[in-house]
């Protein structure tokens, strides 16, 4: 409920404790199926005798409001609020409002009521649903047709648009079936619980289920394109535009292309701003030229490798040769002593000979 200034008021209690009388479905089978939460082996599920009209219905204009979830940050809706039978009102721990199309749930494996999804749908396409496919279409059965197709379509739109924006609707005339596609999957989840076992204008009991995948190839291609576009937009919203520009520049350099003016972000620059930027570029160029004149010249090139010796080895040899040369020039001359001359070979031979004769 809205206040006079447009703000939400605290949510009201939809029912009082004990007002809703729980009526169990009459047993027509012999085995209880815990997956479908019903007795199996009896009458068909689609039989009117097995369906009971819901005793409550949510009225968004009167029932929506602030709860404790608005203060605690809970992002899930109240399941009983969707069914019109929440007795807690503003004391509820979940939201009492429609899920917004821009919501991003904390866990993609849960629906808007914080219920866990499954890998596959149930055989009757009921229950919470599957996390393997984004389903935005509801199957609505047991519609009482009292007029032509356009009239029935108008009735279905009037009742189902209360829960969110409708993308398209298709009515199968004379078959009492309609397919309602919402813009957001969260809206479809809420509408499925809000319209289950409800009636339109002719006091019927609706059979609302998840729709199976459309076998039309054109519809499959359109859905695939839509999912790709949604994913592309989500990635672009989370990416920094500077990163996108850098990636485009790197890709252009790798391909050898010239970057064009198209990009994720186009900036409108006036003539004065462009002239100011040109002046700044000229001043920066002049400062670079002065800096090059002031800076010392670059060092000489290192010697190239010669043969088996590397450039570092050649540089080291030259360094030690220069040190040796300086050391020889500064040190005093050393006096070299001559070694005694060796005796002549003929003299030694004569001396040896004479000594032998004396003996």
From TrEMBL:
SMART domains linked: RRM (SM00360)
Zinc finger (C3H1-type) in chain: 77-99
UniProt-listed CDD domains: RRM_cwf2 (cd12360)
GO biological process, one term: mRNA processing
Gene3D superfamilies (UniProt xref): 3.30.70.330
Record keywords, A-Z: Cell cycle, Metal-binding, mRNA processing, mRNA splicing, Nucleus, RNA-binding, Spliceosome, Zinc, Zinc-finger
Gene Ontology terms: cellular component: Prp19 complex; U2-type catalytic step 1 spliceosome; U2-type catalytic step 2 spliceosome
Regions of compositional bias (Basic and acidic residues) in chain numbering: 16-25, 269-303
Subcellular location: Nucleus
Predominant location: nucleus
InterPro entries xrefs: Cwc2/Slt11 (IPR039171), Cwc2_RRM (IPR034181), Nucleotide-bd_a/b_plait_sf (IPR012677), RBD_domain_sf (IPR035979), RRM_dom (IPR000504), Torus (IPR032297), Znf_CCCH (IPR000571)
Annotated RRM domain residues: 136-213
Region of interest (Disordered), residue spans: 1-26, 269-311, 329-359
Every C3H1-type domain range: 77-99
GO MF annotation terms: pre-mRNA binding; U6 snRNA binding; zinc ion binding
Family membership: Belongs to the RRM CWC2 family.
Name under which the protein is recorded: Pre-mRNA-splicing factor CWC2
């Amino acid at each position: 409920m809205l206040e006079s200034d447009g703000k939400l008021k605290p949510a009201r209690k939809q029912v009082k404790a004990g007002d809703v009388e729980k009526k169990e479905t009459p047993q027509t089978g012999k085995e209880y199926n815990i997956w479908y939460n019903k007795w199996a082996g009896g009458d068909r599920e689609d039989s009117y005798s097995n369906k009971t009209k819901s005793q409550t219905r949510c009225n968004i204009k009167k029932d929506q409001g602030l709860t404790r979830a608005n203060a605690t940050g809970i992002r899930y809706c109240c399941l009983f609020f969707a069914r019109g039978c929440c007795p807690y009102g503003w004391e509820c721990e979940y939201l009492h409002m429609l899920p917004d199309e821009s919501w991003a749930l904390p866990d993609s494996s849960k629906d808007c009521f914080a219920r866990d999804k499954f890998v596959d749908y149930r055989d009757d396409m009921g229950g919470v649903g599957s996390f393997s496919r984004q389903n935005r279409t509801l199957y609505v059965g047991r519609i009482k047709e009292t007029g032509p197709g356009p009239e029935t379509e108008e009735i279905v739109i009037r009742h189902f648009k209360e829960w969110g924006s409708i993308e398209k609707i298709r009515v199968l005339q004379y078959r009492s079936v309609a397919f309602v596609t919402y813009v957001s999957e969260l809206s479809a989840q809420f509408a499925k619980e809000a319209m289950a076992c409800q009636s339109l204008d002719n006091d019927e009991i609706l059979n609302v289920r998840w729709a199976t995948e459309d076998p039309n190839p054109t519809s499959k291609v359109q859905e695939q394109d839509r999912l790709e576009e949604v994913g592309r937009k989500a990635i672009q919203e989370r990416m920094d535009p500077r990163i996108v520009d850098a990636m485009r520049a790197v890709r252009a350099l790798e391909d050898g292309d010239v970057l064009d003016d198209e990009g994720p972000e186009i900036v409108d620059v006036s003539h004065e701003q462009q002239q100011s930027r040109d002046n700044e570029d000229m001043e920066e160029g002049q400062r670079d030229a002065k800096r090059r004149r002031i800076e010392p010249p670059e060092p000489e090139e290192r010697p190239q490798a010669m043969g088996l010796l590397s450039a570092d080895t050649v540089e080291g040899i030259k360094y030690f040769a220069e040190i040796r040369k300086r050391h020889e020039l500064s040190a005093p001359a050393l006096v070299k002593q001559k070694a005694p001359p060796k005796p002549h070979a003929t003299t030694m031979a004569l001396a040896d000979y004479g000594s032998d004769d004396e003996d």
